[in-house]
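Example 9 (inverse folding). The structure is encoded as follows.
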């Protein structure tokens, strides 16, 4: 995985402060995180109804016992993320703020929440990213060694000052790819 350039980051950020210029705040796992996810899931379901094909809790806050940035990552799958008229205005009218728009990355859109610190990631139903997010999450939930490796990596990197939070995410990519590769292999073996 390649590191995203400053130019790319500036190009895809639609709103909000893009520069971070500090360390990354990590917190011990909190039992409130799944509760916050369920509240957001219900809200999004009421707003989008059948247009929300899948709503999943992803990222570190979805893995019991894992230290994480206290931001709830949510995966929202819609028919076609490129058809913004089907979901963007409805979410924005209910307080969600469109922060990132990546037409060149499977039409990924990312929103912040109205009253809870979330990252709502929107992808089309045929996106390859969906399976990656879910395999990674499920593997971490089931494998303490992978969870520990990921947590140790995050803790070490979090001590550094990062211009963009994305730079911190990019720095984890080698470990993420190793864990994801193991998850894909295990999934393939289980399907045989």
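The amino acid assigned to each position is listed next.
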């Amino acid at each position: 995985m390649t590191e995203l350039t400053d130019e790319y980051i500036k190009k895809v950020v639609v709103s909000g402060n893009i520069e971070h210029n500090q360390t990354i705040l990590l917190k011990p796992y909190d039992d409130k995180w799944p509760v916050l996810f369920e509240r957001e899931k219900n809200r999004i379901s009421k707003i989008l109804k059948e247009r929300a094909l899948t709503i999943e809790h992803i990222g570190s806050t979805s893995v019991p016992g894992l230290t994480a940035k206290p931001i709830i990552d949510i995966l929202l799958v819609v028919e076609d993320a490129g058809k913004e008229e089907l979901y963007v205005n409805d979410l924005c009218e209910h307080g969600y703020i469109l922060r990132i728009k990546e037409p060149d990355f499977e039409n990924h859109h990312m929103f912040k929440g109205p009253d809870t610190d979330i990252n709502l990631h929107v992808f089309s139903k045929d996106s390859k990213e969906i399976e990656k997010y879910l395999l990674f999450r499920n593997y971490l939930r089931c494998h303490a060694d992978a969870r520990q490796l990921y947590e140790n990596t995050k803790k070490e990197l979090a001590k550094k000052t990062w211009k963009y939070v994305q730079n911190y995410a990019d720095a984890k990519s080698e470990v993420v790819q190793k864990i994801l590769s193991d998850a894909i292999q295990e999934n393939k073996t289980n399907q045989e």
